[in-house]
Amino acid sequence: MSAESIRTGLGFDLHRLVEGRPCILGGLELPYSAGPLGHSDGDAVLHAVADAILGAAGLDDLGTLFPDTDAAWQGADSARLLRESLARVHSKGWVVGNVDIVIATEGPRIAPHRTAMRARIGDLLQVAPDAINVKGKSLEGLGALAGGEGVAVQVVCLLHRRDA
């Protein structure tokens, strides 16, 4: 493949975890007493994935395309936002090669849900689960997210031209 036929993208998202909200991460509802606060369902994992693929394709970011000032996106399922983002990426002739995800939180445990997250995200991105990697990281009690108060997600992705 030539350099013109591949691109990388980086996505990042951060949400406070609050009592009384479902804990939606990676397109799954995880058993935890608090969930991500957001205009949509707050799924920081899918938001970061969407930003990574959009950025790699040279498109606007998630917040520009689906602004939190638009009531249409209030409570929206982040899987829908990711599917719509992927459709835009596909319309530019790009497809996902792979995605690598780091979820940093002292909130819900990620390890027991990695396989299901990989399958769900792979399904949403129309790639095999082995093209998706999910890693949960503890914050070792450091910083504002310590104590399970939030979740930060970083994602890198590779896109390639559909015809390459």
Gross CATH architecture: 2-Layer Sandwich
Q: From the structure provided, what is the oligomeric state, counting identical versus distinct chains?
A: single chain
Q: Mean of residue pLDDT?
A: 94
Portion of residues within helices: 25-40%
Give the overall form.
globular
What is the CATH domain class? Answer: Alpha Beta
Strand order, sheet with most strands: 4-1-7-5-6
Q: Give Rg in angstroms.
A: 15 Å
Q: Provide the domain count.
A: 1
CATH homologous superfamily annotation: 2-C-methyl-D-erythritol 2,4-cyclodiphosphate synthase
Folded structure, characterized:
The chain has 164 residues and is α+β, with helices and mostly antiparallel strands. The protein has a single domain, classed as 2-C-methyl-D-erythritol 2,4-cyclodiphosphate synthase (60s Ribosomal Protein L30, Chain: A, 2-Layer Sandwich), CATH 3.30.1330.50. The chain contains four helices and seven strands; from the N terminus they run ββββαααβαββ. The protein has helices spanning 44-56, 62-65, 78-91, 114-125; strands at 6-19, 23-25, 28-30, 34-36, 94-105, 132-137, 150-161. Strands 4-1-7-5-6 form a five-stranded mixed beta sheet. Strands 2-3 form a two-stranded antiparallel sheet. It starts with 5 loop residues before the first strand and ends with a strand.
Features:
60s Ribosomal Protein L30, Chain: A; 5-stranded mixed β-sheet; two-stranded antiparallel ribbon; 7 strands; about 25% helix
Please outline the helices and strands.
Blueprint: E1 6-19, E2 23-25, E3 28-30, E4 34-36, H1 44-56, H2 62-65, H3 78-91, E5 94-105, H4 114-125, E6 132-137, E7 150-161
Parallel strand pairs: 5-6
Antiparallel strand pairs: 1-4, 1-7, 2-3, 5-7
Helix pairs in contact: 1-3
